[in-house]
């Protein structure tokens, strides 16, 4: 097909083409091979910590926010704000409770930079990054924050479009299955929540919003972060609230939507995982009812599903049933 040719198919022709769906990495199509993902939030909303745990769990094929990655993935994290001594400290927050196998996978699969800036608008810098992608061959490449890697006016539709579809697009030609994650900031005055659309708070041209397959917005209130999703290839997950527990080394799900069974199970896993001691079924039931706002019979249904989960161990002490988390990975 010539570069200028429109990729047009009749539905009859399209129905005859055997097409494989992209590999789904996490939460189905929320993060998949070749996807474009934007993570946005205000200053100090823990965007980097959010991605760092995601990267650690991706590298080990572990569990992030209650959902397991499909397999261990190779992750390349290019960042401009954290000096390597402090970056090492942050990563260790999320790896301190990992078993040896998971830790070995993280050490092998997760690549990070020191505080490092360049400009993808410069051909030499873009080539350097492209060559590195070609050498490492990551499944996920993250740029944090993206604006540190572009000498552009982020309000200019033309300049933002060139960055996203030409420079960033060129990186995906090196490895078409590469998932690109860009970390970006909110406007100084954020009013999207008042209008009911938090994605309007993303700083700069609306081209940012047209680029991604998955958008994730973090809104912080004290220590609690609310996640909002917007997706192009699937039904978006409902908003959920999370809290960074540095002592335990993961983001805890505080409340999740009760819209589907899997979401309820994910929250149950997080509750069990977050307890240092086995949790009694009665206490688990009460927490599920409280955090999901569901009736007792629905909580018991979730507990029944948790009994069969491969990472959940149950034991009885007399008439009481206890649940604990078996750390198969991290």
Query: What's the order of the H and E elements?
Result: HEEEHEEEHHEHEHEHHEEEEHEHHEE
Mean pLDDT: 90
Query: Could you say which structural class the secondary elements and strand pairing correspond to?
Result: alpha/beta
Biggest beta sheet attributes: 9 strands, mixed
Could you name the key traits of this structure?
single chain, 330 residues, alpha/beta, Rossmann fold, Arc Repressor Mutant, subunit A, 2 domains, 9-stranded mixed sheet, 3-stranded antiparallel sheet, 16 strands
Describe it for me?
This protein is of the alpha/beta class and 330 residues long. The protein has 2 domains: 22-255, 3-Layer(aba) Sandwich (Rossmann fold), CATH 3.40.50; 261-325, Arc Repressor Mutant, subunit A (Orthogonal Bundle), CATH 1.10.10. It is built from 11 helices and 16 strands. The strands form 4 sheets. Strands 7-6-8-9-3-10-11-12-13 form a 9-stranded mixed β-sheet. It has a 3-stranded antiparallel β-sheet with strand order 14-16-15. It has a two-stranded antiparallel sheet with strand order 1-2. The radius of gyration is 21 Å and the shape is globular. The model has no long low-confidence stretch (mean pLDDT 90).
């Amino acid at each position: 097909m010539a570069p200028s040719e429109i990729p047009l198919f009749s539905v009859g022709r399209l129905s005859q083409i055997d097409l494989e769906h992209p590999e789904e990495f996490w939460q189905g199509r929320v993060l998949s091979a070749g996807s474009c993902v934007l993570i946005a939030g205000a200053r100090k909303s823990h965007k980097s910590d959010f991605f760092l745990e995601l990267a650690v769990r991706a590298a080990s094929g572990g569990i992030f926010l209650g959902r397991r990655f499909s397999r261990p993935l190779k992750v390349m994290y290019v960042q401009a704000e954290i000096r390597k001594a402090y970056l090492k400290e942050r990563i260790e927050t999320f790896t301190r409770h990992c078993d040896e196998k998971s830790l070995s996978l993280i050490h092998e699969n997760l690549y990070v930079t020191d505080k490092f800036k360049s400009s993808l608008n410069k051909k030499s810098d873009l080539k350097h990054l492209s060559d590195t992608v070609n050498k490492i061959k990551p499944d996920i490449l993250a740029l944090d924050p993206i604006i540190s890697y572009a000498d552009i006016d982020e309000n200019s539709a033309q300049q933002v479009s060139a960055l996203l579809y030409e420079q960033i697009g060129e990186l995906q030609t090196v490895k078409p299955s590469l998932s690109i994650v860009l970390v970006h900031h909110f406007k100084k005055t954020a009013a999207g929540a008042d209008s009911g659309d938090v994605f309007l708070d993303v700083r700069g041209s609306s081209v940012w919003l047209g680029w991604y397959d998955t958008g994730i917005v973090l809104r912080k209130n004290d220590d609690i972060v609310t996640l909002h999703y917007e997706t192009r290839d699937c039904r978006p997950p409902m908003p959920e609230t999370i809290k960074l527990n540095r002592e335990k080394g993961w983001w805890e799900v505080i409340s999740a939507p009760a819209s589907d069974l899997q979401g309820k199970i994910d929250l149950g896993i997080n509750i069990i995982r977050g307890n240092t001691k086995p949790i009694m079924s009665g206490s688990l039931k009460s927490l599920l009812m409280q955090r999901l706002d569901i009736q007792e019979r629905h909580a018991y249904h979730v507990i029944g599903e948790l009994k069969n989960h491969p990472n959940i161990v149950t034991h009885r002490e007399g008439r009481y049933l206890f649940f604990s988390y078996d750390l198969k990975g991290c």
